[in-house]
Structures are given as structure tokens and as C-alpha cells.
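Q: For a teaching session next week I want to show students how multiple molecules come together into a single three-dimensional assembly. I've collected the sequence lines for a complex. Could you give me the predicted C-alpha cells for the whole thing so I can convert them for display?
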Amino acid sequence: MLEELLPQILVGLALVVIVAGVVVARRRRPSGRRGATRMKDFEAMERAGRTAVETPTRPRAEEGKEEEGEKREQEGEERDEQAEPPPKTASAAEAPLQERMQEAPPRPTLRDRLVKSRRFFAARLAEAFGGGVDEDTWEDLEAALIQADVGVETSTKIVARLRVAATERGIIDAAELKGLLAEELVALFESVDPGRDRALAFAPEPPTVWLVVGVNGTGKTTTIGKLASDLTRRGQGVALAAADTFRAAADEQLQVWAGRSSAQLVRHQPGADPGAVAFDAVRFARARGLDVLLIDTAGRLHTKTPLMDELSKIRRVVEKEGSVTEALLVLDATAGQNGLAQARRFTQAAGVTGVVLTKLDGSAKGGIALAIESELGLPIKLIGVGEGIDDLEPFDPKTYVDALLS
Amino acid sequence: MFDTLSGRLDEIFTRLRGRGRLNEKQVDEVLREIRLALLEADVSLRVVKAFVKDVRERAAGAEIHKSLTPAQQVIKLVHAALIDMLGKEASALAHADRPPRIILVAGLQGSGKTTAAAKLARHLKSQGRRPLLAACDLQRPAAIRQLQILGEQAGVPTHAEADAADPVAVAWRALTLARDEGYTDLIVDTAGRLNVDRELMAQLAQIHDALDPTETLLVCDAMTGQDAVNVAEAFSSEVEVTGVILTKLDGDARGGAALSMTYVTGRPIKFAGVGEKLSDLEAFYPDRMASRILGMGDVLTLIEKAESAFDTAEAKKMEEKLRKSDFTFEDFLSQMQALKKMGPMSQVLGMLPGMSKLPVGDVEIDEQLPRIEAIIRSMTMQERNNPHLINGSRRTRIARGSGTSVQEVNKLVKQFDDVRKMVKMMSAGKPGGPMRLPGGLKVPPNLGL
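A: Of course. Below is the structure for the complete assembly, covering every listed component.
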């Protein structure tokens, strides 16, 4: 059998070798035109950006909602977000997403939800922070980070930086290290753009279009359902586009969510062209004067070129009729290091503008989010913490890190 | 970025080459690198520790074969240890004492249970069995409908109850139905549940107790990270897991979760999901996985992909041309179109033995393809068929036409020429040691060609 296949292999190999050779040669040239953007570049960019804009970098948790709004306006943001504050509802749990982020501490809920995920991590940390600082402390610390899916490289880097910082500040008590670690982790999240705006963007002219993408089974449809419910509750007119025409009953799943959130649903026949669904949905949303259109797409592995091309096409088609305000990558918190490859490829294909980290209520910690933010510069915008319609929260690095470490 | 696991190990062993026997210190170094590489491949830390310990013990007691280099010995050791941990050999579904054989499918949300259940049903049906699907995911909206549609596609009936609230009751009625109507297998799809959700985990235990299944298969996403070990632990402490279905293996995840799962459950991976079609379910081959992990390349998968992408007769002609060195840029272009069908070049590269160590960023190589294509398309037909015609002024023209630089054109022409020579040498049958390629690339002598 192998004999017969030899020609294919040989030809394939030859091609691969030629291409690889060219790429390697390019890489060796110091002035490669398309050198990969590394963290350093980001830092440089960020530094440049900071001096130019001189944004005050106050911790956002302390800022009142009004203040926040003013600040944004001063900065000349074009985002027409929440022009009028929504009517306040009685229970805090029902408060809309944007509000909950800036309001009094969302911490209790998040902490509660993360309590289980924390347990193991905390146990490791308790071990690490138990007494004085010695070699074992560092080793435990690194192990804890690795087990949170932060990745070996990043974990090693964090621990190395922590060591330097600890020596500088003369920290000998392991408990003090914890505060330092929290600082380091938050700093990593903020390394691209301190205090960056993690709120979902709205288009100046409706309809706002949010395109939701990701690999199979990360929770795209569920996330859309939650988002829709949050928006309609705030009095926004919402349409959902069932552009996942591949998976069996995906449109029916979305229909259930549309019903729960009283959003409108645009759907075609199963197997229809997803681009056409998206296109129609944009027209529909505009014709009906709806505020936000959420486009659900089929889950696809980022390695499947034709499917990723299809995604680019959906985006292009939408842009014929309007524009994509946000392209949200839904990422499963259980994802390991592959999450970075996913983020990179989806960004190439669909111009991802933000990440939704789902299933954080499990035992997975979603540490890959750190790498995605610090290496690719993609902001984590929301986290999914349960199957309920309200179980979507804004992402805040400090809260996330605190919840993880406390 | 992160190197692939294969890349890491390759690196170590390349460094080992040319040295004498391994001493204690070198073994430590190798083990440390293996540990790192496995962690980067998402193998859970605890499993990595156990694995490394195992390898060390094996190394201590290993016989020294004079015919093997130390590097080869380490590879052999690690390979064997990996296969052991992955479950030694492909294992089939257990048989029930009396029909129906009950297969319970469980896992986290989004791991691919419903799809896996339908694939399994189709697989059993194709073996001449008569399976029945039971829709016991009453949690997710339209999950029942999804299973029904997939069941129809597979030609397998589905037991579903529209307004049921208790999955245990549905499962029980499905079993009764299966017994009464003489189905050979009952495949029970359950709701996705988090391993930390006590209530739902208890519910799973109830379903399990009610059915007393022959097989309880834990569905695991191949992209899972460190958490795999917690998931496996929680599920196997609640129900008796008898095997694992590893899904989404057609991606580029390094699949460390496979190791974690088998280590914790002590049960083999019985199936692998390798695509979106219902037919995309394969038996899991531990040796293939181990080879892939070890940078021996997943040649078998590569062959399968190549088979579907290349026209055999066409490829034969190309090979002939390659051997005779009259492979032209025109041929290159047409083959490149076929190669594209095999998926991202970076992924194809990873499957090639020894290629995983290429210092090529995982995406960058795919970004270069269009440039190469542009260069070739900017050549005249005459140039494509007679690469030696391409002189200085032609190169300038080609570079301008393709929006690239003369250096790039030079590189491509040179590389093309070198490969033609290399292939000629290889087909002559005696490469004699690792092939040195321009650009410092090395092709191991044992490509099996």
C-alpha cells in the first residue's frame, strides 16, 4: 500500500521543503517585512500610545459610572454606548451587563462562581505561600500557574519576574508574595493597553452588528442568547441571525434563545449559505430599525482553511450591507495552549475584536486568556459563568485575578 | 511561540546525536526537556510527573543495544512509555452479556457528545447492528432535535420525549423500548455537565445506575488543557468510565489531554472524532498518537490526507518528473493547489517526520504561500517550464510583477533547484545520513522513502 502512495508523499514533501526553505530564508533576514509582532513590539506601541494620549490610568473599579461615561466622551470616543441610562431594575442580578461592570463589586458573584475552580489552585498556592520563601515556593508557584493553563513559557516568565521583584522589595514572607503575584498577573493583562475599554462597542448608526465566531462547542449560541437577553432587557431591539446552517438544529437552539429573550430571528433553510443569512439579517435589522444584530456562526476548527475562508466571506458579505462592529471569539476556558492558535487564526479570518471566555464556572481557569491578551493584544471582554440567561459578566482583570488567587 | 511537542523532543535528540552513551546528568536534562514539552502539549502536570518517573525507571533498567545510538534508545523508551500510557493498543467496544448493549455517553458541555453519539450509531449500523439512540439531554435547547436530525442522517431511530423533565425516566423508557423491539445497542446521549456541578453529576450517576451500561464513554475535546485531569477524575469517581472518545482530533491541538484522560481513568481511548461528517469517527491508535507526539511524524494521517488531495495518476507523473529533474514551476503551481486542500501548510509540516523542528511560526508559513504563488504566476510560461532561463533582468521583472523582492525570487528559484537535486539524490536510493538542505534544514534519512 505504501508503495503506491510514494509518489504523493514525494511530491508533497518536495513542495513542503521548497516552501519551508523560502520561509526559513526570509526569517533569517533581519529586515523581514512581516516579522511576527512580539510582546516587545506591543510594549513599544503601547508606550508610544500612552505618551501621545496621556490617558490617566486610574484603576477602573473605583470609578463611578457617570465619571466613566464622561471620561469616554472627553476622549472623543465615537461609541454611542448607552446614551441613556437604562431604567434600574430591582435586583442587582438583573442589572444589565454594562452596568454591573462599573457598579459596586461584581466580586461576590464571580468569586462564588469561581469558588470551585479556585479550590485546587488555592490549595497549591496555600502550599506555596505557607511560610518562608524558598526554592519549593517558586516551584509550587510555577506549577500552580501551569495548571491554570497559563502555559510554561508565560509561567516561567512570571515567576522569574516575581523573583526579581521579591528580591528588590526584600520580601521574605511567602504570604506577601501573593499580592505581588496578583499585581504581576494584572500587569500582564494590562500590558497591551492599561485600563483598556472592555465594553462591547456599539455602532454610531444602528444596527450594531456583533459577529460571533469560534471552534465547535465553545458556547457561541448560548453566549448569543445571554447577550440578546441582556440587550432586550435594556430596551434594545435585537435580531439574531442563524448563520450556523451546518449543525443540526442549531437554528432551533437559537430560536429557543430568541424566544427567551424576545429577540427577532432571521433564519434560512438548513444548509443555506451562511453569508446569505447574515446579509439578509443586516437588511432585516435595518428595515425594522433594530438596534443590535447578533450573528451566530457554525463552530469550525481553525485549521480548516475552507471553513475559515467561509467565515471571511460572511464578514465581507455583511460589510457590503453594513459593518461588523465587533467580531467576538468565543473561547472555552478548558482550552489549553491551542487556544492561542485559535485566537490567531480567527483573528486573521474574521478580524476578531474581543474574546468571550466561557465555562469559567467549571474547574478550568482559562489561563490561556493571559497569553491571548498579552501576546495577541486581544481584549477579553466577557466571561461566561453558567448556563443561566444571566450568567454572562464583563471581564475585569483585577476581579479575575483576585478571584483566582484569594 | 511554543514549539510543538515533537519539535521539543526533536531538539533534544538532535543535541544528543553524536554524543556517546547517556550519563545520569544527560538523562536528567532529557527528562526535563520531555517534561517541558509534554506540558506545552497540554498534558496535565500530574500526569507529566508520573510519565517522567516512568521513563526514568525504564531508562535505568534499559538494556544498551550496541546497534542503537543513545538518542534512538531514548526515543524508543519514550515512545514505548507513551504507547503504554495511551492504552497500548486500539480497543473495541465491550460486548454485552445479553442485548441490548447499553452505551452511555457523558462529558462536559461542548465536548461533542451528541455528534459522537450519532457517529457511534452510524458506525454500529454500518457493522450490521441495530442501534437505538436515546435523547437524554433535556438541558440544552434543541439538543433533542439535533440528535433526531443526526439520527435520521445516520439512518438510526431516536427515542425522544418532547416534554420530559427527568432524563433518568427517559433513559429507562428508552431501554425498555430497546429491549422490547430487539435493538442490539442503545446509545444514550446525556446533557453536558461541569465536573464541579454536584447536582448534575449525581444525576449522571442516577442514569448510570438505572441503565447499568456496558460502556460508559467519557467524551473529551482534544483541545482540552490542564483541566483534563480534573474532569477525568470527577467523572470516573461518579460513574464507572469504561472508555474515552477523543473529539476534534482533526484540529492542530497537540492532544496532551489524551494522555491525561487515559492516565486518570485507566481506560483506553476507544474512538477519535476526526471531522464534522458522521463518518468521521475512527478507532483510536495509541501508536500513531505516540509517534506524532514524538516527532516521528504522523505519516499515516499524512498519507490519508494526501490520498484525498492528490490525483494518483497525476502524482505518479509528477514523481516521475521529480525523479528525472524535469519538474517545472508550472507543475509546482498545480501541485501546490492540491497541497492546499490538505489544510494549512504548517499542519502538514508537523506531520512530516523531522519536520516539526522547523523554525517556522505556526501561521507564517501559510502566509508565505500566496507570495510564492504570486512569484510563479509572474513568470512567463517559458520561464516556468525552463527555470534556468530566469536571469537577472527576468528576476527583476518577476519581482516587480509579483510585488515581491528580487531576493525572494532568488530564494525561490534557488530552493526549487536544490530540491530538484535533492529528490534526484533521494530517488537514487542512498542519501547516506541526514540530508543537508540549503537553509540548514535536515531531512532524516529514514523517511521511509
